[in-house]
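Notes to self after the Tuesday call (sharing in case useful).
The group wants a holo model before anyone commits to mutagenesis around the pocket. I volunteered. Ligand is iron/sulfur cluster. Logging inputs and output together so the record is complete.
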Amino acid sequence: MVMYSHSKISTFEQCPYKFKLRYIDKIIPEVEKTIEAHLGSAVHNTLEWLYQKAKEADSKKEIPTLDDLIIYYSDQWKKDFSQEILIVRDNMTSKDYFNKGVEFLVNYFKKHHPFDDGTIELEKKIIFSLDSDGKYEIIGFIDRLAKNAQTGDFEIHDYKTANSLPSKEKIETDRQLALYALAIKDIHGYDNEVTLNWHYLAHNKKITSKRTNEELKELRKQTLQLIKKIESANEFPANKSALCGWCEYKSMCPLFEKKVKENESAKKQGQVQESTEQQNTKSKENSEQSQKPKTEKREIKREIEINKPKTKTKPLDNKKYPTISKYLKD
Ligand code: SF4
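Result:
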């Protein structure tokens, strides 16, 4: 029996070399976590806690308040935070990311309170066979599974903390939630409808889609073919993309190894010079910035452009809820 997850399959599609390092050589990277991953897990844990509390509540009074929510989020943030966490973007600090999470949660709370949309399970683990022999299995976790009392549909809810909104085509061909729909239909029967819901928290927006049984049958077939392709692969070439900036294996990558070492050595030299000359910090930073290789600066700029929010988050209703500044770090 071979077990695959959506992220394992996606890693192969994104970069076969990264796939080899992670899943075949089983190398644990030096920097295991990016700040985006840290933000994502703090926000996910907080929303899981919120819905668990709402499920257990006998009355609306027992549902956590906005203050409770942000206190819980702050604890989650502190619990797993370390100075080793990788921050790729030059213009962002860990405080900025913490504040982003606050904004996501305040907006979500305001829009969805009192969280009574028929939640059945949280962080639901699913394992199901792709083939009739049970040789290839898919494992995954559904952020939240609900049963809509009005429509009778099962609802798969997924939280996204990335800045960018997906295209319509990407939503209609998204594999992860469609695989989860297959799992739910395998359990509850193919007569049931399953809706796929993505919550893009940076935009305070929910995007919904559905798959027909025919589409799911085709997805099962294609995913099996892809896994068989991975299983028979002999070569694992590195594939450079905008995502390389967030890759934990960059220092081991043949496309970046030399550049990473050069940057580290340039950084060390810069530190020695700074302590010797006791220069003004600001002018020193500017000077170091201007010494960065042009190609690297271009790449960072491109990554920032790609991830820039396309729409602004709605302003909060301050009459009903406290101002967001109450919760932000200075
Ligand atoms: S840095 Fe880019 S090319 Fe290199 S392993 Fe990571 S994803 Fe692949």
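Two things stood out.
Residues 15, 17-18, 238-240, 243-244, 247, 249-250, 253, 255-256 surround iron/sulfur cluster (CB under 6 Å).
The beta strands are 2-5, 119-129, 136-147, 154-160, 194-200, 205-210.
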